[in-house]
Please model this.
Amino acid sequence: MKILLTAPPGMGKSTILEKVVRGFDGKHYGIVAREVLDESGKRIGFTSINPSGQSQQFMFYTESPSAESIGGQFDVDIKAIDDFVVPELKKGMTDSSALIFVDEIGRAQAKSPLFLQTLRQIFAAKCNVLGSIVYEDEPWSLEFKRDANVCLLEVNRRNRDFLPGILLAAFCNRSLFEMMNIEQQQQSMRFLHERIQNEEFNAAQKIFRNAIPYVVEKRIELVEEGAESRVYHIVGRTSGHRLECDVEAGEFRCDCDLSNGRGSYAGKAEICSHQMAVRLYELGLAARLV
Ligand SMILES: [Zn+2]
Model:
């Protein structure tokens, strides 16, 4: 599972990433980036910190910037990135149940060809990644942002308090996620992206806490199949649900409270885990028929 956060500076990406790393239930490897301030509080650079607390400064304030300087005031020590950041990222590559966190994937890091090559290897490998990436669509960043297996989430003031819980639900259910086929995994990531965009934060958590378990634990049963509709029964966490799919319109109707905005979700209807589960289940069936 690979998730990238993006936002203009100061939106709280690093805070979200730290909360997820702290709550993660497995091994984690990676790097966080921190400002370096002088005694007067002036920013004089950035440093990378690994999970053991060791650090290595990789950006330095310069009085005489060159065309290569970042933001017209910081020089990058590419060797520090290659010798300190890259090995930390590689440590997690062979552990498919671990989390690799990369804060951040920015202009400074992109100056290192070795960093970008390592990132490509990590993105191609079967490992779990949570990173923050530059907000602007810089050409080098697009291959990561547009990777079909990556969910790119834009952090804003409305979603940033919800994201740690949602991302923890995602990464802590990674073993169930891995049990689905690639189309189902990619659809789950599209569900996550849509839910965050639509600010359906209950539903976003339920993708991982409910919908994916329903699929993997075979809690979905097709009970009626006609030319115009299919009816499913889903054994939910607390009760069973009936979900009808209108074949032609591609629409779903579920009897649960969340999709109807009733009960504890009064006035706050969101797409329900049952509908998402059935859509993932049908993708699984389609794959088996090929
Ligand atoms: Zn439902």
The two ends are 25 Å apart (CA to CA). The pocket of zinc ion is lined by residues 241, 254, 256, 259, 272, 274-275 (CB under 6 Å).
